[in-house]
Task: inverse folding
């Protein structure tokens, strides 16, 4: 696992804000993602759009990666860091590998489909010619609470 940087909390707060909007405005599972370049500038952001777009691939990370690729005019995104509120799934992890993202920072682990160490470890696999540095746990409690409350509301239960 990679070491944390002093800007990680700031960018994760931004990702959590995007997750809140996904939930409150769009009724989506609250996951937000932000991609920052080597100069500390946001080049893309996204939130879950699976329900809104009727697109099973419209996870927050994929939405942000698409925006970043188009904005940069390149499908490769070297020297970038992707911040996301939930551990990436296999689809998102492999998209990061293909895009050559340098680093991913995630908040909450996903014990069912996490592909950055929980269930699979695709980002660090020696089978790939590119490995993504992973840092985890930044604002994990906040992200976990947001996700738990979303699913509790869907089941008619009181929020925590």
Result:
């Amino acid at each position: 696992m990679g070491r944390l940087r002093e800007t990680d909390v700031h960018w994760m707060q931004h990702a959590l804000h995007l997750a809140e909007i996904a939930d409150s405005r769009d009724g989506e599972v609250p996951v937000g993602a932000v991609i920052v370049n080597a100069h500390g500038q946001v080049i893309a952001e996204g939130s879950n759009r699976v329900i809104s777009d009727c697109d099973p691939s419209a996870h927050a990370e994929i939405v942000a990666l698409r925006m970043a690729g188009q904005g940069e005019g390149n499908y490769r995104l070297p020297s970038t860091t992707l911040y996301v509120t939930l551990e990436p799934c296999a689809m998102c992890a492999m998209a990061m590998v293909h895009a050559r993202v340098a680093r991913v920072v995630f908040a909450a682990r996903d014990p069912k489909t996490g592909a950055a160490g929980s269930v699979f470890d695709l980002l660090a696999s020696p089978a790939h010619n590119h490995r993504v540095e992973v840092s985890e746990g930044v604002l994990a409690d906040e992200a976990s609470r947001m996700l738990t409350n979303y699913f509790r509301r869907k089941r008619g239960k009181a929020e925590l």
Notes: The chain has five helices and five strands. The chain has a mean pLDDT of 96. The first strand starts at residue 32 and ends at 36. The helical segments are 8-26, 50-53, 60-72, 90-99, 140-154.
